[in-house]
Design goal:
Layout (H helix, E strand, L loop, with lengths): L1 H19 L3 H4 L3 H6 L6 H23 L9 H11 L2 H14 L4 E8 L2 E8 L17 E7 L2 H8 L3 H9 L4 H9 L6
Antiparallel strand pairs: 1-2, 1-3
The structure holds manganese (II) ion.
Manganese (II) ion binds next to α1 and α7.
């Protein structure tokens, strides 16, 4: 995780800063503002911003999704998840199926989409916003995410993505999940 944070994540930050050097107005924006509607970014750096800005944003959401001291899962959160996934076991099954079914690099997410909790995946460093306003749709609001790039699990789990997903379930930061659901408009 330390290598993941200090090398992989840092590289996205560094490359995003290089890409934005000629655009001080863009460099001043928050990462959310930059990614929310990528059609506003000049074409010459658009893909670099999607890749590296997305890499930065996604990893930020990932780090806050995990905590070794996860605390008690509150009744209210269980109810919220039960509404969407029948029960927590159903949630885990759907999340794991999506994670294992995603081909290649990417991310698996719990998002709010039209007031509903849903599980989606995104390819490469695309954010759940990639189908958002630029596609004429409302944004999917990220609530929880797991990095599916091999660099996230290969050192410890080699090819066993399923074991990595199971380990993730033990350290989900439910407190942050609750915060994100409560403050979903601010997550946009
Ligand atoms: Mn990563």
């Amino acid at each position: 995780m330390r290598l993941h944070h200090t090398k992989h994540h840092q590289t996205y930050v560094d490359k995003l800063n290089v890409a934005l050097e000629p655009y001080p107005d863009l460099a001043k924006q928050t990462i959310e503002e930059l990614l929310r509607d990528v059609t506003k970014i000049p074409e010459v750096v658009r893909q670099a911003v999607i890749n590296n800005g997305g890499g930065h944003y996604n990893h930020c959401r990932f780090w806050e999704s995990i905590n070794p001291n996860t605390g008690e899962l509150r009744e209210q959160t269980i109810t919220t998840f039960e509404k969407a996934f029948i029960n927590l076991t159903g949630f885990k099954e759907q999340f794991k199926t999506a994670a294992l079914g995603h081909f290649g690099s990417g991310w698996v997410w719990v998002v709010v989409d039209a007031s509903q909790l849903k599980i989606v995946t995104s390819a490469n460093q695309n954010t759940p916003w990639s189908n958002g306003p630029s596609m004429g749709r409302a944004s999917q609001i990220p609530i929880l995410t797991l990095d599916l790039w091999e660099h996230a699990y290969y050192l410890k789990y080699q090819n066993r993505r399923a074991d990595y997903v199971d380990a993730f379930f033990k350290i989900i930061n439910w407190e942050q999940v609750e915060k994100n659901i409560a403050n979903q408009q601010e997550m946009l």
